[in-house]
What we know:
Layout (H helix, E strand, L loop, with lengths): L16 H51 L4 E6 L4 E8 L4 E4 L15 E2 L5 E2 L37 E6 L5 E2 L8 E7 L3 E8 L4 E7 L9 E2 L1
Antiparallel strand pairs: 1-2, 1-6, 2-3, 2-4, 5-8, 6-7, 8-9, 9-10, 10-11
Amino acid sequence: MKRTKQTSKHSQHGFSTLELTVVMFMSLIMAAIAVPSYIKVASYLRSVGDLRSLNGVTAQAKMRAAADFTHARTYVDLNANTFHLEVWNKAGNCWQTDGDTANACTAGNSPVVSLSQGVTFGAGGLGVGPTPGTAAVNQAPACRRRVAGVNGGGTNQNTACIEFNSRGIPVDATNAPVATGAIYISDTNSVEAVTVSATGSIQSWLTGASCSGQSCWHAQ
């Protein structure tokens, strides 16, 4: 005699509407808590990544200036939110973008590094820099079309440059050592800076966007 397997009606019941509503409500609460935190962390990682890249280019500019016995600089386009390394081409009497094999002098199609989405050059309204020498928050001076110590040529508007001489010392337009210099980047949550001193020391800094004193800055 063939037996038929029976299943109780109770075991076939699914979730009730109330149970599903509770689960969905809890999921929405968890998402509401997690998403803003994720966005903030992602923004922090992008800005810190840009800070490290900017620090790396500045350190490379210092080394290239000394290695090639010339001048080199970190070039920042404040409007386009890009930066790159330039080395003074003595033969061409012009600045040349590092890694640009197509142009002897920096051109419109020379390669640049772009800041991440949501990160821009600026201090976000912050009033105090990370060191006594940068107490007044200002970007590095505008980039000159000529090498430091050579008159004429003018400057490129909406730019900022940290230029090193052949000894790896940051210099001003007259080729004199500068006490301090800085480039600032920011997003909605934090402000970062790369600073240089008269000795050629390069340092990265980080602080919150709402910070108002030097004690809020932390070396990276």
